[in-house]
Amino acid sequence: MFLSELTWPDVAGLSKDTPVVIPIAAVEQHGHHLPVYTDSMLLTEIVRRVDSAMHDQILVTPLMWLGNSDHHLDFPGTLSAPPRVYLDLLVGLLDNLIMHGFKRLLLINGHGGNDVPGKQAVFEVRQKYRDREDLLLLFSTYWGLGDEAVMGSPEFTQHEMGHACEWETSMILRISPHLVREYKNIAVVDRGNPFLPATRGWITKDRSEPGHIGCPHLASPEKGETLFATFSDGVQQLLNRIIQWDGKSWEG
Predict the structure, then answer these.
(1) Residue 104, Cβ neighbours under 10 Å: how many?
(2) Measured between alpha carbons, how far is 189 from 193 in angstroms, rounded to an integer?
(3) All structural domains of the chain with their residue ranges
(4) Which pLDDT does position 147 carry in this prediction?
(5) Distance of alpha carbon 78 from alpha carbon 66, whole angstroms
(6) Please, which residues have CB within 8 angstroms of residue 85's CB and are 6 or more apart in sequence?
(7) Residue 54 and residue 223: Cα distance in Å, rounded?
(8) Under 8 Å CB-to-CB from 177, ≥6 apart: which residues?
(9) Which of 17, 67, 170, 239 has its CA 20 to 30 A from that of 142?
(10) What distance in Å separates the CA atoms of residue 132 and residue 104, rounded to the nearest whole number?
(11) What percent of the chain has pLDDT over 70?
């Protein structure tokens, strides 16, 4: 069910054990060949597929298109909420839904820059409601929910998400090929080793002058469908675990 299509009495009548899916994405540069709305388009398609399969079992809020994209701000078209502002925004959304009585909340993410504030948001909200044993507050990024057999498939040269890469370019080719500019002759931008396993502070221009990271020239709509099917199934599996949660246990 999409929250945007319901009246307030409809929402009031729902079981408060209904999992609430909160899609969070971004508007930011995606190299020379993909639109700035890429992350939001991809997550919208995944959520659409999940809702189609689980329509009466979940409640989906409208997509939060404004993300934490400060590292892309050197590229025109990027729109970003600063990290601390974004963290407060997510905390506020979770607070709203808890006030309305919902207890099982999932932030499903479609942009790497949202990872740290998203995890911090669910951590902070749990501290705020520390007397509530019935709350399940989760954050997950969709490409972390893929089948490992597909993620490691020889079909793909990349085995992890990049940026405007083989994966993202393939998925946009699958749903909106008319928005993809010339990509078959684009040079590879390697991820490199930025002092791993340490975490380095960076902006995108530290890593990529054109804005992409990965191998977009290897993309195809067929690969895009494989990725959509894999990630949508992964989200569904997580939601089934949320539905089956007994309302108090640590594990699920």
Answers:
(1) 25
(2) 12
(3) 3-9+16-244
(4) 74
(5) 10
(6) none
(7) 24
(8) 221
(9) 17
(10) 12
(11) 100
Question: How far apart, in whole angstroms, are the C-alpha atoms of residue 33 and residue 169?
Answer: 8
The arrangement of strands across the sheet holding 104-109 comes to 59-60, 20-24, 104-109, 136-141
d(CA 58, CA 17): 9
Fold of 3-9+16-244: Rossmann fold (3.40.50)
Terminal Cα distance for the chain, rounded: 23
List pLDDT tens digits, range 2-40: 999 999 999 999 999 999 999 999 999 999 999 999 999
Tokens describing residue 63: 């997509």
Place of tokens 């189609």: 52
Instruction: Measure Cα distances from 152 to 85, 115, 142, 218 in Å.
Output: 36, 23, 16, 16
Based on its alpha-carbon atoms, the radius of gyration of the chain, rounded to whole angstroms, reads 18
Average pLDDT over residues 207-231: 96
Give CA–CA dist 218/212, Å, rounded.
13
CA 248 to chain centroid: 26
